[in-house]
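re: the backbone from monday

yeah here it is again, tokenized this time
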């Protein structure tokens, strides 16, 4: 008999292979453009049904963990798009709405089949410029995390970390916020083919930067797609003391915005990751769809892990 689902996502990551959802922004790009919005995050307030439908599609595809639509929902990042100071209430409203919507979708799915799902509150990656106030960035990160936590997320996931200085600030914010709300943290980096972060820094430095937050998992996402991703994941696995999460993109898009990696090939990558025991959770990033996640879910199911 299958054991009951743990209430704590950290325990789940320790004992079984979970399925993450796929891309958010690329899946919502058409709806974002149709609504004349600069960022997909704003759909959470303006057109929530679009976001809700995407969550449901990923849950139907077999995702155990879905992500909030909050990749840019940080006050200092939003200011760049509005060219004006963003109200604290706007940031709070986006993140709370995104979190509560995702949580409602997981509860509905659990009521249908009794299987516990989790919500990862996506935290914006940051890259402070010379002269920026570290305290302002820290405050902005904490505000986003607090709103996500109050919205009910199970995990704060800082994804696409691409520089060490910004990652340290995000980790410091997580170290302050997560214990207050008794929730878990995780970090995922996007790295170059040579294993370094795009703005400089080695994986060893990344692991040192996030240690202050005592993460439940550390992983890789995007990284130009599955080609070469497994090799990079092997490197992280040898260095990291934490459970690993893996969610590459579907390759680099062509001039028409089409992504080259199909669901079948994406599923084959997941099969390799599982066979080598390289990750505790597998999903997709830019360009992936519910079909890609269904392929991953089938591989995970077949593995029995």
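seq for it, each position gets an aa:
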């Amino acid at each position: 008999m299958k054991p009951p689902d743990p209430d704590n996502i950290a325990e789940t990551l320790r004992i079984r292979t979970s399925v993450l959802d796929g891309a958010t922004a690329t899946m919502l790009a058409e709806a974002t453009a149709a609504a004349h919005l600069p960022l997909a995050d704003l759909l959470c307030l303006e057109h929530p049904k679009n976001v809700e439908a995407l969550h449901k599609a990923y849950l139907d595809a077999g995702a155990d963990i879905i992500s909030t639509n909050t990749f840019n929902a940080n006050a200092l990042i939003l200011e760049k798009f509005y060219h004006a100071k963003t109200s604290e209430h706007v940031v709070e409203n986006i993140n709370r709405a995104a979190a509560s919507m995702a949580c409602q979708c997981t509860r509905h799915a659990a009521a249908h089949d009794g299987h516990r799902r989790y919500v990862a509150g996506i935290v914006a990656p940051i890259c402070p410029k010379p002269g920026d106030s570290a305290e302002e960035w820290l405050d902005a990160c904490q505000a986003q995390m607090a709103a996500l936590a109050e919205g009910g997320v199970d995990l704060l996931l800082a994804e696409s970390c691409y520089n060490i200085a910004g990652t340290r600030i995000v980790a410091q914010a997580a170290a302050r916020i997560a214990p207050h709300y008794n929730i878990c943290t995780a970090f995922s980096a996007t790295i170059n083919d040579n294993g370094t972060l795009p703005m400089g820094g080695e994986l060893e430095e990344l692991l040192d930067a996030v240690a202050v937050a005592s993460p439940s998992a550390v992983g890789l996402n995007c990284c130009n797609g599955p080609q070469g991703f497994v090799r990079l994941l092997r490197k992280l696995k040898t260095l990291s003391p934490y459970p690993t999460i893996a969610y590459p993109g579907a390759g680099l898009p062509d001039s028409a915005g089409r992504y080259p990696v199909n669901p079948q090939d994406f599923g084959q990558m997941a099969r390799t990751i599982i066979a080598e025991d390289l990750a505790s959770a597998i999903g997709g990033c830019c360009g992936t769809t519910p079909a890609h996640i269904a392929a991953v879910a089938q591989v995970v199911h077949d593995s029995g892990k």
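The domain at 9-303 is CATH 3.20.20.330 (TIM Barrel). The longest strand covers residues 155-161.
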